[in-house]
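Response to reviewer comment R2.3. The reviewers asked that we include at least one raw input/output pair. We reproduce the pair for phosphoglucomutase (alpha-D-glucose-1,6-bisphosphate-dependent) here without editing.
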Amino acid sequence: MSAAPTTSVVPSLDKVDFLKLQNGSDIRGVAVAGVEGEPVNLTEPVAEAIAAAFSGWLVEKKKADASGRLGVSIGHDSRISAQVLQDAISRGIAGAGLNVVQYGLASTPAMFNSTLTEDDAFLCPVDGSIMITASHLPYNRNGFKFFTNAGGLGKADIKDILERAADIYNNLTTESLMTSKEQAHASIKRVDYMTIYASDLVKAVRKAAGNIEKPLEGFHIVVDAGNGAGGFFAAKVLEPLGAVTAGSQFLEPDGMFPNHIPNPEDKTAMKAITQAVLHNKADLGIIFDTDVDRSAAVDSTGREFNRNRLIALMSAIVLEEHPGTTIVTDSVTSDGLTTFIEKKLGGKHHRFKRGYRNVIDEAIRLNSIGEESHLAIETSGHGALKENHWLDDGAYLMVKILNKLASARASGVGGGSKVLTDLVQGLLEPGVAVELRLKINQNHPALKGGSFRDYGQAVLKHLENSVESDPKLQKAPVNYEGVRVSGFGGWFLLRLSLHDPVLPLNIEAPSNEDAVKLGLHVLAAVKEFPALDTSALDKFVQA
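Raw output as returned:
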């Protein structure tokens, strides 16, 4: 006679504060041991509980139109913890009674697209999708992004899922873990979805060029994937379109990121793609972040299209297609960009808050109240277009740029990437642009037991009051985040970080002298707050 199966709660599970894993509309945690002071909190049982929670959430959301078992796709970037977490996520989904489709190495935008694609051979559309990624964070981190055909889940959904996951985790039994393992073994299917996603990008460029088979023939374009998930773009997108991709680098996935951080905002990363363009005498360089939801480009002369310049380029392209439309950006974009969008391009610049979900949601909101917006884009390289379901897709942004190259070539305009460079002519750029981080010491007695948020808000209020009494400075008439002020030919923005006890300070000015004047005003106002570490600002104004 066999022993009765055990239903005891697993005794060895670590206590986990699930809500601390929330990072806006994503989940982020430490998945690999070895970094001092960063204990692992994204374990296999934690991942399994989160997947089971998402499955329960999805069943509730889809109950009205659910016919049979729901299906969830799973993809991952190149991180070293990807496979282990993919297996744990699969167990959580299968244990909840849903079908699992594994894509292996994939991009975040592809995962959303799998909820829209209609192709039975690829088991699409799926009802929900999970991307295992922590974007450009170090090798020991990982996390999850979730999608349905309505788009990426928002903050409230993530909080709901994490609360459910905590309950599931606290009631995990040895038996339930074994059952989910068996169910996963029986229900997992594997599909090469990236092939269909890349093929759709190729079709988009061909269509824009008037259905020419190889509209990029004669162009030399190099790709830097930073050893993330973007290596497919060279062989599966550019080469079928006729481009030469010799000199492309770091296309192989490697979750230790040995060459540079896969981040279009990182100076070392941008230097690497710029050098590759110049060394190979290429027409264009393209760089992606780890999971390909962000990107940037470099023209044939080594001029970077990232941050304000990438926004200017995309605005020029979108405003040609949709004259007068509103461009929504994050809060740290430059005054020169506003002038460029409104005076040169004839559009409207709506400067909103930091955070790509904030920017995208604001564009959606504007459309809902009758203000047409076709582009939502952050200085980080997250850019989303209305025509692409408001998905922040780094590969699709680059496709829009390739469309411009291809259509210029088709209409007889040569000159490599000059057509792109010409589009941003007239963009005024600052002589000096810095971002300094002023940290709040949460243990300082000045907080009097209050939160860093309350302390940060008090700093901002005091700064705002000090500006009003200075005739040389002018507060921005419309502002959605922090304190933004113009003066000395430039501007500064002090705001509270979305997640951390930090007040980031952005300063842009025509000269170092003007930037220091702005910095000195901020310093004079905030020095009354002893829990605020102003050493970065002190150093800047003294240098």
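The chain has three domains: 15-191, 196-424, 432-542. The CA atoms of residues 28 and 143 lie 4 Å apart. Further pairs are available on request from the corresponding author.
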